[in-house]
Amino acid sequence: MEKKKIDVPVMAELFSKGKKPEYLFWVGCAGAFDDRYKKVAAAFAKILKHLDISYAVLGKEETCTGDPARRAGNEMVYQMQALQNIELFKTYEIKKVITICPHCYNIFKNEYPDLGADFEVINYLSFLADMLHEKKLKLDNSVLHDRIITYHDPCYLGRGNDIYDEPRELLATMTPALREMKRNRSNALCCGAGGAQMFKEAEKGDKEVFIERTEDAIDTGADIIASACPFCMTMMTDGIKYKNREDEMHNLDIAELIVKALKI
């Protein structure tokens, strides 16, 4: 079966025609290059089209935010990347940015202003929750009604930026069987990949963090782990494989679940 191509507007093309979209959809490195997370970026693009949102992506002009470089201690590379992005945003007169990665969201919102950034940053779950409140996003609760879902809080979304209710509200709209892990919200366990840990070897210890966190999810009896971060998705998916649960448990981003509920 041939996959249907998603028509995604590009900022440079729109700007050359005198058009200025309301939002920049910041895809992020994972959404652009990671085969698994490309599906999440595509899912969110489908939702934006379904909602008839005025948006565009930067396409080939998008680079990294510099977050991994800063977390790894390379301040110079971070500032070079950040200043480049800030100037590009000014060129396109970008005022609102939607991110699907909590790491991109956090650094844009909390660290870029120190370098002169002046734009609003919105996490996609907050954006979708607002659409739900305004009754623009209408989810079919029959699609996932028989699935047991547990939600893993990304550190940079939850503890970092106090976004706890929005993902749960979206999930609760789609299924009556939302089960919390024993460690949740501000007490949630990290997936083990934050702070540039994704790019280094594991340190000495009895058990890797992602295995411990996967066990938290398994204990709920859920068959879907809902996540909202590319790093978390990689670690939770690896955890499911490590525990030999691929046949009975799956890791899906909330955007992917919403696409299922919208039947698009």
Report the end-to-end length measured between terminal Cα atoms.
16 Å
- The percentage helix is 40-55%
Rounded mean pLDDT is: 93
How many individual helices? 11
Explained architecture:
With 264 residues, this protein is an alpha/beta fold. The chain has 2 domains: 11-129, Rossmann fold (3-Layer(aba) Sandwich), CATH 3.40.50; 139-262, Rossmann fold (3-Layer(aba) Sandwich), CATH 3.40.50. The protein is built from 11 helices and 7 strands. It has helices spanning 11-16, 28-33, 35-50, 67-71, 75-91, 102-110, 124-133, 165-174, 209-219, 230-242, 254-262; strands at residues 23-26, 55-56, 96-99, 120-123, 149-151, 224-227, 250-253. Strands 2-1-3-4 form a 4-stranded parallel sheet. α10 links the parallel β6 (224-227) and β7. α7 (124-133) packs across α8 (165-174) and α9 packs across α10 (230-242). It starts with 10 loop residues before the first helix and ends with a helix. The model has no long low-confidence stretch (mean pLDDT 93).
Keywords summarizing the entry:
single chain; alpha/beta; 11 helices
